[in-house]
Amino acid sequence: MRARATGPSTVSKAAGNVTGRVTGTGRVTGKVAGLAVLVLAVSLPASNANANAGAGAGANVARPIGVSLPAPGGPYPVGTVAMRLVDRSRPDPLVAAKPYRELMISLWYPAAGGGPLAPHMAPLAAADWDRHSAPPLGVPKGAVAWAATRTHARLGAPVEPRAGRLPVVLFGSGDGGPRTLGTTLVEDLASRGYLVVTVDHTYEADQVEFPGRRLVRALPLPPKLTPKVIAKLLADHARARLADMRYVLDQVTALAQGRPIGGALPEGMLGAPDATRVGALGQSLGGSVAAQLTRDDARVDAAVNLDGAYVGPVAGRGVTRPFLQLAAETHTRDSEPSWKSFWRASTGWKRELRFKGAAHGSFTDLQPLLPQIAGKLPKVPLADYVGTIDPGRSVAAQRAYIGAFFDLHLRGKATRLFEGPDARFPEVSRIP
């Protein structure tokens, strides 16, 4: 039996010819030709998962550790609402017997008024994360109060009318990762006046909680993850995600036209999205899909890839629209063939920024959360997942560059941030 969690991946560094080994933290080392550092899902043999689950066993976990997310920095309070969407125009691409595709999304937006703070994870999803996803990170079951963690967004709060029409950003997490893992960046964009739509890709995400206290877990991974099997798995997931994102964009377009979707909407949401200004943001496999979406769908104006290699046609064809790529310290065009081919083929505005000391998981909510846990469970392999970069500085730099990128290309706001080094962010370097 295998465990699945969110962190550096055995799936992440494989396609073509790979020679490597799985270490006790689920990392893969070795020679990679094809995909590298692509997904966020970790696949561990039970022995490794159990070893990591015991990493903090000597610590006192009688009282679960409380963790918090950094407050967004924009001028607006944030609201959020979760919605179930059903696409009856196609069968589920991952479960052949299901005649429709069912998704959970969340809308994040500038808000007016109060209401209770939204949880970081829905209750059943938090419990499942605690049981199945946290232990392979070295965090024992019950050690962290995942269900008690709150966002800074008010549930169902009215849309702030002073924000005007809202540019739209679609967000996708890494393969196997739930939509909640981008909350640190998503909340900040919403506080700057964006409508951000986060998407769970059902049967691929570790856990998805639907209304009525119904939990759907990821399909089991194949028992033998050869490079060929992994490449097919990622290609299947990428195709399913691309169709999901295009369907979600259809729904956002309906909202922009004043037509309701899904369940109850917050006051002021109908007509609030500006479907003429759309961006895509994704981490790992989500970044690859963001690129493919930008190439394939004329409604998408610009995109950001958070340390993901490329799967599918976009790897060789690139994009023609503005594109920003953020990279962990050791992930380069020389080590990742798909980055090199994508970069050469892309003809629009483009920038690549490398974050010194960052790891693949630095571009997720693990960046602010794991250091808090490691402070009380010192055996958590922190550097394996989020590197050695200062967590606060990493989050601040990511927010600044992503916000400036979308402000430039969706709002026409000039910035000098991409012209050269910035003294505020010495950890960030531009790669020519």
Please specify the SSE layout and strand pairing.
Blueprint: E1 2-6, E2 18-22, E3 28-32, E4 41-45, H1 46-53, E5 78-87, E6 101-110, E7 117-119, H2 123-133, E8 150-155, E9 166-172, H3 183-191, E10 195-200, E11 207-210, E12 214-217, H4 227-256, E13 273-283, H5 285-296, E14 302-306, H6 314-317, E15 323-328, H7 337-345, E16 350-355, H8 366-374, H9 382-386, H10 391-411, E17 428-431
Parallel strand pairs: 5-8, 9-10, 9-13, 13-14, 14-15, 15-16
Antiparallel strand pairs: 1-4, 2-3, 5-6, 6-10, 7-8, 11-12, 16-17
Please tell me about this protein's structure.
- This protein is of the alpha/beta class and 432 residues long.
- It has one domain (67-431): Rossmann fold (3-Layer(aba) Sandwich), CATH 3.40.50.
- The chain has ten helices and 17 strands.
- An eleven-stranded mixed β-sheet has the order 7-8-5-6-10-9-13-14-15-16-17, sandwiched between helices.
- Helix 3 packs across helix 10 and helix 4 (227-256) crosses helix 5.
- The longest helix has 30 residues, at 227-256.
- It is globular, with a radius of gyration of 20 Å.
Short descriptors:
eleven-stranded mixed beta sheet, 10 helices, 17 strands, 432 residues, globular, Rossmann fold
Quick overview of this protein structure:
With 432 residues, the chain is α/β, with parallel strands linked by helices. The chain has helices spanning 46-53, 123-133, 183-191, 227-256, 285-296, 314-317, 337-345, 366-374, 382-386, 391-411; strands spanning 2-6, 18-22, 28-32, 41-45, 78-87, 101-110, 117-119, 150-155, 166-172, 195-200, 207-210, 214-217, 273-283, 302-306, 323-328, 350-355, 428-431.
